[in-house]
Write a structure and sequence with these properties.
The structure is a single chain. By secondary structure, this protein is α+β, with helices and mostly antiparallel strands. It has a single domain, classed as HIT family, subunit A. The chain is 26% helix and 21% strand. The chain has 7 helices and 14 strands. A hairpin with a 2-residue loop joins strand 4 and strand 5. Helix 2 packs across helix 5. The protein is globular and about 60 Å long. The two termini are 28 Å apart. The model has no long low-confidence stretch (mean pLDDT 94).
């Protein structure tokens, strides 16, 4: 089986969503004459007077940031979700819509404009993790909130509008599409097997030892068997936990360690500040039984062959299903070699 999936086109099942990805390992050898991105190797100052997120600076809405020293959180000035949105619905034949309420926050990881998670210390990343926990707890306790999405877009290639090290938290009244699929898949497996879907998968990965990049006492960093993005990775807790509030103080340190390792490794891959979108999927905050959930953090980086060649989701991938050229095993070996 291993030889076949390294040489021939095939499909792989994403057990968390129930969807398939097409893998075409033979296409990695095709010549590239397409789009080449510009590499941003500019050196940023520790403080940028023109940056809306730097400490002491005034944001676009006229509010002034405090002179913060580590992590700083504020309500997004241009939030995608409104807390006071009118409640309404549209049910006119095939025209269907419903109101959605929520709260969006911005989390500045550091006052140092030149930093990213990849060059922050593990204790400083741990402060970010603790902030994620606090925001998850605070927002999740609100009556109108049933899901809290923590994420980061890093790099202009990922649509990030500001290079200052920061992430976001969007919380809303219903489950977003990806979480809805993962909720259903994990629940069906848990009801059938009486065990964690991701926990059982992780045990199989640890036995196979083909896609593991790094592990410590509490977490495993791996390339998922069903990965879509060229160097996609996932951080999975070894213990089945519904959400990040179940981590102990030692766990948060080890989670910060895992984040540090994979982000540093990414930067070594093409010798640039590696772009990605990352996010934490965890149980809804809907006061229901979510014991089937096993939270995890995913990194979706877009670069394929070099710092200038991006993986585009177009054509067949927009109209058919996702497709990748390099196998998950090849990507895992490449990343592991850089540790």
């Amino acid at each position: 089986m291993t030889n076949n999936i390294q040489d021939y086109s095939h499909k792989r099942l994403n057990i968390l969503t129930g969807e398939w990805v097409l893998v075409s390992p033979h296409r990695a050898k095709r010549p590239w004459q397409g789009q080449n991105e510009e590499v941003a190797n500019d050196t940023r100052p520790s403080h940028d007077e023109s940056c809306y997120l730097c400490s002491g600076n005034t944001r676009a809405n006229g509010e002034k940031n405090p002179d913060y020293k580590d992590v700083f959180v504020f309500t997004n000035d241009f939030a995608a979700l409104q807390k006071d949105s009118e409640t309404f619905s549209v049910n006119d034949g095939l025209f269907k819509a419903q109101s959605e309420q929520g709260v969006c926050k911005v989390i500045c990881f550091s006052p140092d404009h030149s930093k990213s998670l990849a060059n922050m210390s593990v204790p400083d990343i741990n402060k970010v993790v603790k902030t994620w926990q606090n925001e998850f707890k605070t927002l999740g306790a609100m009556d109108l909130i049933n899901y809290v999405q923590i994420f980061e877009n890093k790099g202009a290639i990922m649509g990030c509008s500001n290079p200052h090290p920061h992430g976001q938290v969007w919380s809303q009244s219903t489950l977003p599409n990806e979480v809805f699929k993962k909720d259903n898949q994990q629940k069906a497996y848990f009801e059938s097997k009486k065990s964690s879907l991701l926990g059982d998968y992780l045990n199989q990965e640890l036995n196979a030892k083909e896609r593991i990049i790094y592990e410590n006492d509490a977490f495993v960093v791996l390339v998922p068997f069903w990965a879509i993005w060229p160097f996609e990775t996932m951080i999975v807790p070894k213990k089945a936990q519904e959400n990040i509030l179940e981590m102990t103080d030692k766990d948060t340190e080890l989670f910060a360690d895992a984040i540090s390792v994979i982000t540093k490794t990414y930067d070594k891959l093409f010798n640039i500040s590696f772009p990605y979108s990352s996010g934490i999927h965890q149980a809804p905050t809907n006061n229901q039984d979510n014991s089937h959930w096993h939270w995890h953090m995913s990194f979706y980086p877009p670069l394929l062959r070099s710092a200038t060649v991006k993986k585009f989701m177009v054509g067949y991938e927009m109209f058919g299903s996702p497709q990748r050229d390099i196998t998950a095993e090849w990507a895992a070996n490449k990343l592991k070699s850089l540790l």
